[in-house]
What does this fold into?
Amino acid sequence: MISVDLIIENAHILTVSTHEEIANGCVIVKNEKILDVFEGMNKSYRSGTVIDAKGKLVIPGFVDCHTHLVHAGSRANELQYRLQGMSYQKIQEKGGGIYSSVRDTRAASPEELYQQSLERAKLCLKHGTTTAEIKTGYGLNPATEKKMFDVIHRLNDESGLETVATFLGPHVYPDDREPEAYMDWLLNDGLALAKDQAEFVDIYCDIGAYTFEDTERFLKAAKAKNIPLKIHSGQFDALGATGLAADLGAVSADHLDQVTEAEFDALLRAGTVPVFLPGCSYYLKTTYPDARPYLNADMQVALATDYNPGTCPSLSIPMMMSLAVMHMGFTSEEALKAVTLNAAKALKRDKIIGSLEKGKQADILICEIEGIDDIITNFGTNLIGEIIKKGMIVS
Ligand SMILES: [Zn+2]
It folds into this structure.
């Protein structure tokens, strides 16, 4: 008998890899990694920790590949403005929206910012997210962008949630500095900060955010420094940045509510991961994009929360899966792959996480359900039982 750290047995397993479904089998964990996954009874391994998963579903930990989890303050008040008919852009023009989060995030001490963000990281884990990408972009000045990076890295070290840092210095233009002066900072010291602290850079190109021309300058400068690219594009209008990002080899293009045919072709050609954010459509009451053409073209489509205090204050990946199936043309299995393996690909970590395969990190969820459809049908309900991160039962 081989001694291991953890045995999960009698489980219905969805591996989200080539050998996808095991009706009754085992997952074996040793040294933070998956040592074995197989059908049938365990005859070869022993462990002091054995979980009987009879009647439960075992799946990979969720990867939330697009969040703005680190910020101070709340924007719950904006709900009332929007219900009275004020648009997201109008709220921002009046000093609300992103600018209100920027004020709160600048004013918060590093410890306050960490504590507020830690509560959200715990919520992520509780809903099955074991890895989350987190963007800066509520600083819009050097000191606060750096403060956000410090919190993102500290969460990775201390919260139990694995974090991936993205530099979103170009979230919106700051309201206390000339756009050109801020662009100068972004293209020089901002990108140097990103190179040192982040795994990706990102820019928000849309109405009320960055222009196509500034987006092109920023992405090309980042590419010249060999920093992998992401983009927020096509949320409200197709300004051309989705095609630009794909042509520059962006790892992912996120939002994609408005995409031209040429941009669709560019994404397909480049292998850029399309990331859909259905929580924004739900909360802003806008039309859901149709993901079916992307899925039919065999693109590795991902789903994420876009958690942020203004346009999607939800950290629930199961809720996003349900929205994607009910409104965007996903099957339940496609939605699961979109929040695990494909989301990992959007973070360039698909060799390490996102599926239950030998050698991968042991990020595993044991759900109190029989099949994946139950996540879709029980929308708004958290059915995640045990959460295992790097082989440790965290909750
Ligand atoms: Zn976003």
